[in-house]
Specification:
The chain has 197 residues and is α/β, with parallel strands linked by helices. The chain is built from seven helices and nine strands; from the N terminus they run βαβββαββαβαβααβα. β5 and β6 (91-96) form a beta hairpin.
Length: 197
């Protein structure tokens, strides 16, 4: 039996992996879990968001984010080029639509790491997406993680904590909840949900 090389023909819809959305409160460890997971399974494609936020030390354009100005972001929104977008702490973040659809069409597992507002918008536009909520082991641990970063001003941390309370209350809107007690364990569970293991 001949095997068709991956990516040369579209994968039948029933054989395609679903889009997986990982969300949860700021500081819960989403980026850490995703970084570990991609080190172990680099074939998992993580969508790179566009943002109007300035780069943090060590961040590179096209790797962590596509860093754009307000005018460029307005064009992306106006042209329908974002699957979802949201404003948080004075900056806008959005997921480029075309790259996600192309990867899914090719049968590749796709992961979005986005906030609650973005997850809700994805649910509206792609009801078949799998929404996974990453929860902290406790509220005290979440506060410790957010204040321990040392990268943000106290007023920004306060806004993040206020937002975190709202985000935690939305857990029931998700298909699955994973508690981040161990980065390795959560990454393994997430991969299993995405059927990559």
């Amino acid at each position: 039996m001949a095997v068709t090389p991956r990516g040369t023909t579209p994968v039948p819809p029933d054989a395609r992996p679903r889009l997986t959305v990982l969300s949860g409160p700021s500081g819960v460890g989403k980026s850490t879990v995703v970084a570990h997971m991609r080190k172990v399974h680099p074939e998992v494609w993580l969508s790179v968001s566009a943002t109007t936020r300035k780069p943090r030390p060590g961040e590179r354009h096209g790797v962590q984010y596509f860093f754009v100005d307000d005018e460029e972001f307005d064009k992306l929104v106006a042209n329908g080029e974002l699957l979802e977008w949201a404003e948080f702490a004075g900056n806008r973040y959005g997921t480029p639509r075309q790259a996600v659809l192309e990867r899914l069409e090719a049968g590749e597992p796709v992961l979005l790491e986005i906030d609650l507002q973005g997850a809700r918008l994805v649910r509206e536009s792609m009801p078949e997406a799998q929404l996974v909520f990453l929860a902290p082991p406790s509220w005290d641990e979440l506060v410790r993680r957010l204040t321990g970063r040392g990268t943000e001003a106290p007023d920004v941390i306060e806004r993040r904590l206020t937002a975190a309370k709202v985000e935690l209350a939305a857990e029931a809107e998700f298909d699955t909840t994973l508690v981040n007690t161990s980065v390795e364990d959560v990454a393994r569970e997430l991969l299993a949900l995405m059927r990559v293991v």
